[in-house]
Design a protein that fits this description.
It is built from 3 helices and 9 strands. It is an alpha/beta fold. It has a single domain, classed as Rossmann fold, CATH 3.40.50. The strands form 2 sheets. A 6-stranded mixed β-sheet has the order 4-3-2-5-6-7, with helices on both faces. Strand 2, helix 2 and strand 3 form a beta-alpha-beta unit. Helix 1 packs across helix 2.
Length: 177
């Protein structure tokens, strides 16, 4: 599935690690003495949240949600479906939604509003990559690892039809179909 003739390295593992460390430092400072609940959006954020949680010094819990708005397409359909909901009660908790990339914002807005209605003490969004040029709806993203151009990316959790998530670096598609 991965053809390096069609993809060019966008971020190497060292650059990714530096962005994750920077995000962890900010969270550690902002939530010192508190407990946070990380709600990671599957499947893409799995690798990012695993690396992030190892760098957190604040007490934390992790839960997962799986949403779909893409199917097998490379662009969002605009319709969000819950495939797996969180298991924890978030009332009164400091919650961080962990996403690997934000583009249109539709899926994240849906999740943000849904979790906000559940009564957390605080609710913030953290993303490794912010593709704001594709934003269709605004979402309050507090923590951004890196602002990126409008490119189709794979690697480090980002997939191409469920493949390539395992690549340690992030690549962009040179020749979109």
């Amino acid at each position: 599935m991965f053809d390096d003739k069609n993809f060019t390295k966008y971020l190497n593992r060292h650059e990714i690690d530096a962005a994750v460390q920077s995000l962890a430092n900010r969270i550690n400072a902002d939530y010192e003495g508190k407990q946070v609940l990380l709600v990671a959006v599957l499947k893409g954020a799995l690798i990012f949240v695993a690396d992030l949680v190892r760098l957190l010094k604040v007490d934390n819990e992790i839960d997962f949600v799986r949403l779909s708005s893409y199917g097998k397409a490379r662009t969002s359909s605009g319709t969000v479906t819950i495939l797996k909901d969180i298991q924890m009660d978030i009332r009164g908790k400091d919650v961080l939604i962990v996403e690997e990339i934000i583009d249109s914002g539709r899926t994240l807005k849906f999740l943000y509003e849904r979790l906000k209605a559940a009564g957390p003490n605080s609710l913030e969004i953290i993303t490794l990559l912010d593709k704001s040029a594709k934003r269709v709806v605004e979402v309050p993203v507090k923590y951004v690892g890196k602002k990126i151009d409008d490119q189709f990316l794979i690697g480090y959790g980002l997939d191409l039809e469920e493949h390539c998530r395992n690549l340690p670096d992030i690549y962009y598609l040179k020749y979109p179909n």
